Amino acid sequence: MAAKTSTRSSGFRCSECGWTTVKWVGRCGECQAWGSVSEIGAVTVRTTAASRVERPAVPIGQVDARRAEAESTGVGEFDRVLGGGLVPGAVVLVAGEPGIGKSTLLLDVAARAARSGQGRTVLYVTGEESAAQVRMRAERIEAMASSLFLAAETDLATVLGQIESVRPDLVIVDSVQTIASGEVEGSAGNVTQVREVAASLIQAAKSRGIATLLVGHVTKDGSIAGPRVLEHLVDVVVQFEGDRHSRLRLVRAVKNRYGPTDEVGCFDLSDVGIVGLPDPSGLFLSRGTLSVPGTCVTVTLEGRRPLLTEVQALVAKSEIPTPRRATSGLDSARVSMIIAVLAKRAQAPIGSSDVYLSTVGGVRLTEPASDLAIALAVASAVKDQPLPDHAIAFGELGLAGEIRPVSGMPRRLAEAARLGFRTAYVPKGVLGSGPTPRACRWWSATTSDPRCARPCSRGPVRLARDRTGGTKGD
């Protein structure tokens, strides 16, 4: 049967993200860019006739599920985010700001995969640096391996030829915005080129069963550069986050077809490379047993992982008519709301004082569960009295002054008890009724019954109601 062809009226396309529309608009409806929509001419619509099926459909029970089993990369924190490792044929997009450590992490992953002892071959394609620069970094972070092949290429056809020649088990392309195809007009990095390069690499990965890692750039607002269809084509989208002035790096999965998207990997970036942090809570605590006015420890959830973070507050008499409200690592709008609630509901004398708030270790707190810790840190600074030793606090603060429940309370308390904290300020009623809940270092964070799973020589933490309406532990 011959294919039927019809022609429809001309359309308009955004040069930034590839969004199309039937009429011209001044602002793109997808990426909100101004002046990027232009006419693309007449569009030919083709109706393809059915062809002979070479691989017929099979019952779902006969599909071999072993082909989708993940293989470890050798980096435990990266495997946690991916859902156990890399699946053969999977394409992973790793995005992040320039200089945050993407190339260092992936070079370490490439070397560990090549040295895994399973006979895996790894091809590292760099389009941003020379082969000598990558070799120097590999020597610095001890990422040398005999089965790790390196190619400095920017042409798509040459990259596909390298894959055909080396026949690797893992391919890393750094980055997808630097590779260009001679079959497509435009320079490397534009919407058409990124779409063509990504589609070609994905087709090669799927047909040969090669796990592929693509490095992607981000725009100034933090979103992934290039067409939005790029995120839909790949199997996993991983976001690399961190502060340039901090050693901590967080890797979280935004999209994952093979595992959860609520896992977070923690890394320590230094001059000798990047190292996974299975227990990163110590980076965010500046003191041990010493109590200091204006400080409070909270437990935040990064995905499903509880992290202890210290909030510090300083309240000083203002010398100017309009007091300052400065924050570091906290949402300034939410901090202003908490200060207003303290002034109105608790009659805290902070209206004419400068308030400075910061987190330890460069971590950024955006979770509402940190509201109570911020309020207690400010109150402690106002009264110049420290909170009790080994105390934590978490809960969402409402405009009426109430403390609202938060999710993941068993995991938060279990992590705090494991690190030696013995007092907890938490929202009222979240522990439910029944026997007095207890938390100790043997407390299982996976059970819904918050009671001690086995005897503890250090004694349990007994939680009781306090007069403020919250719950206090002794």
TrEMBL record:
A motif (RadA KNRFG motif) lies at residues 255-259. GO terms for biological process: recombinational repair. Plays a role in repairing double-strand DNA breaks, probably involving stabilizing or processing branched DNA or blocked replication forks. DNA-dependent ATPase involved in processing of recombination intermediates, plays a role in repairing DNA breaks. Stimulates the branch migration of RecA-mediated strand transfer reactions, allowing the 3' invading strand to extend heteroduplex DNA faster. Binds ssDNA in the presence of ADP but not other nucleotides, has ATPase activity that is stimulated by ssDNA and various branched DNA structures, but inhibited by SSB. Does not have RecA's homology-searching function. InterPro entries: AAA+_ATPase, DNA_repair_RadA, P-loop_NTPase, RecA_ATP-bd, Ribosomal_Su5_D2-typ_SF, Ribsml_uS5_D2-typ_fold_subgr, Rubredoxin_2. Residues 354-474 are annotated as: Lon-protease-like. Keywords: ATP-binding, DNA damage, DNA repair, DNA-binding, Hydrolase, Metal-binding, Nucleotide-binding, Stress response, Zinc, Zinc-finger. This is DNA repair protein RadA. Residues 67-218 form the RecA family profile domain. ATP binds at residues 96-103. The keyword Lipid metabolism does not apply. SMART domains: AAA (SM00382).
